[in-house]
Amino acid sequence: MSSLFNIFLQPLKYDFMVRGLAASVIVGVVCAVVGVYVVLRGMAFFGDALAHAVLPGVALGYLISGGSREVLFWWALGAAVLVALAVGRITKNAEIREDTAIGIIFASMFALGIALISTVRSYTVDLSHFLFGDVLGVSTRDLVLTAVFGGIVLLVIFLFYKEFMVLSFDPILAATLRLPSGVLTNLLLVLMALTVSVAMQTVGVALMVAMLVTPAASASLLTHRLWQGMLVSAVIGAVSAVTGLYVSYYLNIVSGSAIVLTATAIFLLVFIFHPRRGLLWKKR
Amino acid sequence: MTFPSISPLYPHEHHNPDAPILETRKLSVRYDGRVALEDITFHLHTGERVAVVGPNGAGKSTLFKVIAGVLPPTSGEVKISGFGPRGHICIAYVPQRSQVDWHFPASVADVVMMGRIGQVGFFRWPRRADWDNVHAALEAVDMNSLANRQIGELSGGQQQRTFLARAMAQEAELILMDEPLNGLDTPSQEAILSLLEKLRQKKITVMVATHDLGQAASHFDRVMLLNQRLIRFGPPLEVLTSENLLHAYGGHAQLIQGGDGTTTLADSCCDGKEGDE
What we know:
The structure holds 2 protein chains of 2 kinds. By secondary structure, chain A is an all-alpha fold. Chain B has one domain: Rossmann fold, CATH 3.40.50.
């Protein structure tokens, strides 16, 4: 028993692990809750694109600040909000299909980001931190920013719960109830942008979409009501974050990967063993 | 009529009690230069039930969306109790069942409560009175026992009644229903039609888009025959003549002359097959 405790306690001797753990849990929860709307509204591809499109903003900030990590959050935030609102605008009244437009923006922004970073000598190390996260490099300041902005996202989702629900379920009802649909839609995009910038340091841009989609997808199989889905998704996100971080500590693998793979494992368990809708019980 | 509990953040027009519940004047809608509706002028009386019939592409859904204030008309105007539709939350639009995401994580009661969020207001949660209202609406459509069901587990008729309850919870004075009878079995259709009878007692005005000309004739006060233009609007027997129907449906109409001199029209243009869940 005590050895089991030791497994849990031993990594917590290090402050950087405690900070990393706290940041991962916040990110896991925030991504999972926002992810419920990402899944409901069929915006997985958009979320993936948004995460990748942040890269040039971060790279630019990195170059301008001469390699400082301090300011990167703000550059990520600015880039994410800009891209989210731009894509929202472009896809609304476009001549080309929405997923095509997103595909173009996604790849080109990502390429631009890599191009910018490749001008720096320590290119590979920095790039891998941006792509896959650097949860052990979370400073106290980073942790505070993560908590504050993560808290803002959760608070707004709570405050506009019924409006976002109507907007996602029945846009025509939203219009006949005279809700400001355009403002609410953009608010939801901004929340996704905040989430992406908060999660960037922990899971990195490449795997972020998994944190947005996988816990929410598991929750959608387990629940029938929106708030229940959010709660269950948040729990799965948090459990994935903690488990993933311990796995990464003991098996010495990248934390972002470990967290995402844990979330995927949970999803597979739910998908296969779900009491009524599980793959295992489906008639052939 | 005003709602005292309404949040000031939700705009709401006052009603002029002397004006008709719905009035349109020279309403036209064009999409990319293509005509969807042309020169539609009519008005409704409070509490009447109107069937809107016409071939596919006649503009029935477009008309409803313009009336609901969801789609701005290219020209002309809509007035709800004397004022433009955009300030009103008393218009309910009941979508076609095929347009709804039935996998959405919401219970029957959740969906009905969605109709009330205008009354609840921003930054507030539904109060006891709102839930009472929701359950009264569910009672009226005989759905209270299913209040906690996920909406995807309902039959087609139950889904349609849920949306009617939502319109009642919204305290709608004008309900627009897009093909509510499509794909329903006969008992479910009868249940919906008798609910419409109840709504009349509450002075709620109802417009129903339908393909079933027989039901339009037997269950509605007036019939609107639409094909981009308003072809006829009046009592069913005056509107549903073979001459008018041929005019509206053109080549899609199949007129069947009965031996007793009656004329039946089979509307051949439209698939009624939206019954698959």
